[in-house]
Amino acid sequence: MPIIVSIPKETVPGERRVALVPELVPRLTEAGLEVAVQSGAGELAGFFDDGYAAKGARLEAEVFDKADILLKVQPPTIVEISHMKEDSVLICFLQPYTNATAIRALAARQITAFSMELMPRITRAQPMDALSAMSTVAGYKAVLVAASRLPKFFPLLMTAAGTVTPARVFVIGAGVAGLQAIGTAKRLGAVVEAYDTRPAVKEQVESLGAKFAELGLAAKDAEDKSGYAKAQSEDFYQKQQEMMSKYVASADVVIPTALVPGQRAPILITEEMVRGMRPGSVILDLAAEQGGNCALTEPGREIVRHGVVIIGPMNLPSTIPFQASEMYARTVTNYLAHLLKDGGLHLDLEDELTRGPLVTHRGEVVHEIVKARLCSENSTP
Fold first, then answer.
1. Is 181 helix (H, G, I), strand (E, B) or coil?
2. Annotation marks residue 362 as catalytic
3. DSSP-derived secondary structure for 85-147
4. With 0-12 CB in 10 A as exposed, 13-18 as middle and 19+ as buried, what is 177?
5. Which of 17, 68, 97, 129 is catalytic?
6. Strands (E), the chain
7. Where are the beta strands (DSSP E) in 176-297?
8. Measured at the alpha carbon of residue 220, what is the angle toward residues 219 and 226, in degrees to the nearest 5?
9. Is residue 153 exposed (0-12), middle (13-18) or buried (19+ Cβ within 10 Å)?
10. ∠ at Cα 357 (356, 362), nearest 5°?
11. Partners of 71 in the β-ladder
12. Confidence grade of residue 380 (pLDDT, cut at 50, 70, 90)
């Protein structure tokens, strides 16, 4: 019997992406897999049922109970997990550090679950790096949202009514989202400055036409062995705040992007720094989903404090669902292809690419960090 790969319709409010797009269906069917798509799964992203059918997918009203492999964007709910086949495979954004109830339920149901957030930052994994793909979308959209809320033009304009000076944008963090924000702001004509704890990214920032903010403050061990950001000391963050104040105060738009996996986002912009900004300025906090880099950010809301608009967007990639779905689907399909051998699943647990994102397997939580967090929760009175 062929392995059935199923793609359900996402049920999280506001989620418009889909885990597989029609153009990638033949890649799976040519590998000997059978593709089942829940009717309407791609509609909100602009991918309709007839497009999937034309590429060889089977349309189903329900897909959870028949799937040998389930591809999703958001984590499944407890009800959805209860409908999944035992011993099936799940690949999605699992939110592994904060989703303890679902992870326990997946283990209890003997489901092998892979979390796309845990993909190692190694060269072989680049085509499977879903986080970077979605950060590209978020960095681009963040600038557009900020520009739409700023009561100024972004570019320099020479008009008969006089010269309009360009907006000033300050980007904190030059990872994937930050670099995309820098590039987008420059294309819109803003004067852009950027800062990162890693001096090595200065060349990348300047290659996009931005000025690198020299704070004379470099972090030690800014990345872990997987390439993700590491938290710094409170003393470091305090010094960073003090030295960034002048850049924040002179900016029309500030876009902080600093995230540390599994932890609350570090506070980089204090209320006092917000007070020092010009009225009408905008803070677009790309770290809002983990609490925010601004002390005043309210995740999921747009507020005004001290005359400054502070936006805490949730799930920005879903606001550009067509391309975001295409990009996410490619990373997931590439990862599934890595797990396949001779038409079947082959889990080589000695391979970092297989082991790194693996959270539950054979009834157990096997990811060491996730397991440690679950044990810590169990021991907390």
1. helix
2. no
3. PTT-EEEE---TTT-HHHHHHHHHTT-EEEEGGG---SGGGGGG-HHHHHHHHHHHHHHHHHH
4. buried
5. 129
6. 4-7, 34-38, 58-60, 69-71, 89-92, 112-115, 157-159, 162-164, 168-172, 191-195, 211-212, 253-256, 282-284, 302-305, 308-311, 340-341, 344-345, 358-361, 364-365
7. 191-195, 211-212, 253-256, 282-284
8. 105
9. middle
10. 100
11. 91
12. low
Task: Report the alpha-carbon angle 144-145-150, nearest 5.
Answer: 95
- Residue 38 tokens read as 């829940």
For residue 356 the two structure tokens come to: 């790194």
Annotated catalytic residue, options 140, 228, 247, 328: 228
121 belongs to the catalytic site:
yes
Q: Choosing from 27, 58, 104, 121, which is the catalytic residue? A: 121
Backbone angles phi, psi at 271, to 5 degrees: -60, -35
Instruction: Select which of 6, 88, 115, 132 is catalytic.
Output: 132
pTM: predicted TM-score of the whole model, two decimal places: 0.92
Q: Tokens 């001096």 identify what position?
A: 199
Active site residue 196: no
**Per-residue pLDDT tens over the stretch 225-283:** 555 556 667 777 777 778 899 999 999 999 999 998 888 999 999 999 999 999 999 99
Q: What region does 23 belong to: left with phi over 0, alpha with psi -120 to 50, or beta?
A: alpha
> Would you call 126 a catalytic residue per the annotation?
yes
